[in-house]
Amino acid sequence: GVVGFKAATEVGAGTAEAAENRILVFVRLRPMSRKEEAGSRSCVKIVNKKEVYLTEYASENDYLRLKRVRGRHFCFDSAFPDSTTQAEIYNTSTADLVEGVLQGRNGTVFCYGATGAGKTYTMLGTMESPGVMVLAIKDLFSKVRQRSYDGNHSIQLSYLEIYNETVRDLLSPGRPLHLREDKQGTVAAGLTQYRAYSTDEVMKLLQQGNKNRTTEPTRVNETSSRSHAILQVIVEYRFMDGVSIVTRVGKLSLIDLAGSERALATDQRTQRSIEGANINRSLLALSNCINALVEGKKHIPYRNSKLTQLLKDSLGGSCNTVMIANISPSNLTFGETQNTLHWADRAKEIKTKALTIANEEVLNVPDSETDQAKLLLELQKE
Ligand code: ADP
Ligand code: MG
């Protein structure tokens, strides 16, 4: 027949871009809350567009006694002060990665930080100030509509949670899902794929999904700080490249990680402490993978947790990865902020694999008009 698929094309092989592919790391400082303003002071300063300064002294008294400020500077791809808008965060940290997804390269963005540091605000945001998840989908819609050759495109969403090493569908809550390996990497079997037709519906869908996130038994109205939420977006469209029709598929993963603060294992016999240990397991596994990747180890322990299994092709694979580290300015959370900055600093060293293959199929358009018409008919049937 006229419809014949060629092998995937080489993209970026041997270019500077392919050679230098590392995780981009951004830090976002959130504003002081009213409560913090009353009972604490700031211990973080954004020095310039890339630099964060964390002061070491614990109190005003220490400062007076030491007569000098001892602290530490950290440098990142960007350091965002508390006045930064959601759009600025998206444009600087994620817009290029989303463009990459439209070129057929997978992309992953994750927010890391302690509970209350601003991860969910950054990822989901509010109706008035939508975050990275919504802005990314908006961007995908507008670009794909412009570029698609025959109006054919699809944007599919799935939203899942990892809580206590159990994977659940946030769009259709029910039984836990099993992870299995397939050609695309690790996937959750039976996960809902929701086809989105406009950006407007997405915020509501995700807010509803967030309501399905596991809540702590003691704080029924709050989302658990121990659950990881992962939004996966699969975008597919067709475009004309010279005389060929190219079908391109890209995968974008947007991840709101569980709070990175140390889980308090108060009582070994209670469910809570087991949950704590498991959260440690996922985040600990993440930090172990980061260490192994930074040290260039052959064996990376992805299989140690659900989170790292799912992130496997994002951390070490041929994927563009962005980490947004969220921090609070208050000296009450000095230890957590130091911890977050430490891991963010380390994540800068991770090199991801050089990119060679884009996820696409090329279709040669036949010369004769009748064959072209046949081809279009076949495409429309799909
Ligand atoms: P996390 O998800 O890391 O636990 P949240 O995103 O829920 O933290 O943020 C904690 C609180 O701070 C929320 O009330 C949120 O609205 C607010 N907040 C976080 N970041 C910002 C920001 N950049 N601007 C304004 N408010 C913020
Ligand atoms: Mg949150």
From TrEMBL:
Record: residues binding ATP: 113-120
TM region(s), chain numbering: none
Start and end residues of each Kinesin motor domain: 22-350
Family: Belongs to the TRAFAC class myosin-kinesin ATPase superfamily. Kinesin family. KIN-8 subfamily.
Protein name per the record: Kinesin-like protein
Residues of the full protein shown: 177 to 558 of 769
